Amino acid sequence: MTQPTDIRRARNRPRLLSAALGTALELAASGVPVLPLRAGKVPFGNCPACANNVCGGRPNMKTAGPCRCPAPCHGWAAATIDPDVIDSGPWRHAWRGAAAVAYHPGGAGLTVVDLDDAAAVAWARTALPATRTVPTTRGEHWIYRGAMRSVNAVRPGVDIKSTMAYARWLGPGTGTLADLPEAVRELAVKERPTARPVPQVISVPAGAGGGECRHRTPAYLERGITMAEQRIREARSAIHATVYRTFLAVLATHGRCGCLTDTHVARLFTAAQAKGETLRHCTDAWTNARTALGM
Ligand SMILES: [Zn+2]
Ligand SMILES: [Zn+2]
Predict the structure, then answer these.
(1) Could you give phi then psi for residue 181, rounded to 5 degrees?
(2) Where is the DNA primase/polymerase bifunctional N-terminal domain (predicted)?
């Protein structure tokens, strides 16, 4: 508390708004970028100025944008180590309603192997080197030193959270932090389409065809696809489920008359892939949605 700014902040903040804010400031001071989570343990929704990403998104997002919004919006991309941001007006407002603290593992040079249940934990004990572990509601987070691409569902009940992702902060855990092992990197590689390079090739039928056309005009279909892309783009959690439900909705509305083309499907897959879904997951979700609709 020797720096003037620290003294000023201490005076202005006689006591912390919440335990969450205190935890967040502590983590940030140790170099871990943080963000608040609202009820449901998901990031706060984008503020009106950033709704539908009209702001272009933050500079550190996959598609770099100019947004300098002071609010904790844009999901993981809002995560910061700057105490002045974390303790700013818009963020204080969020901390007041925060249900949990999250961090951006990739931004801290970490990878979290999120093991959802006992079966996943049992698998990790046989397949991965020991490291620092943190108990979660039904499973464990295994944390490694080193960042990598985030991939959901690399195995049943196993997600990899590092770059472009957030994880709940559930305490420091126990055990010694180990270097990110090849075994974890390989989990993500296996998820990529293998063999020949497959650049966005859609090998699934767009629609059944032969049905009665319900969308009347190309503009109606276009609007439907645009809305579906948007729904996927704005999903903040449960990406898998959102992608599947969106595919299901598109197929239910536009899938039976044959008007849906490969180009439309490619747009939906591209939106899903931008959220970290693999081509294989997209293909599976599409196939499953068609099966569910009896197509
Ligand atoms: Zn923004
Ligand atoms: Zn914003």
Answers:
(1) -85, 160
(2) 24-202
Tokens linked to 215: 């969308």
pLDDT at 28: 96
The neighbour count for residue 230, using CB atoms within 10 Å, is 14
Total domains in the chain come to: 3
Q: What span, in angstroms and rounded, lies between the C-alpha atoms of 41 and 102?
A: 9
Encode pLDDT of 208-241 as tens digits. Answer: 454 555 555 677 778 888 888 888 888 887 888 8
Q: Are 251 and 289 in contact (CB under 8 A)?
A: yes
* pLDDT at residue 249, as a whole number: 80
Q: Is residue 213 part of a domain?
A: no
Question: Residue 202: is its pLDDT beyond 60?
Answer: no
Query: How much distance in Å is there from the Cα of 24 to the middle of ligand 1?
Result: 21
Q: What is the torsional sign of CA 164, 167, 173, 174?
A: negative
Query: Among 78, 86, 17, 87, which residue's Cα sits nearest to residue 50?
Result: 78
CA of 57 to the centre of ligand 1 (A): 5
Domain that holds residue 90: 14-102
Residues 90 and 110 in one domain: no
* C-alpha 18 to ligand 1 mean position (Å): 25
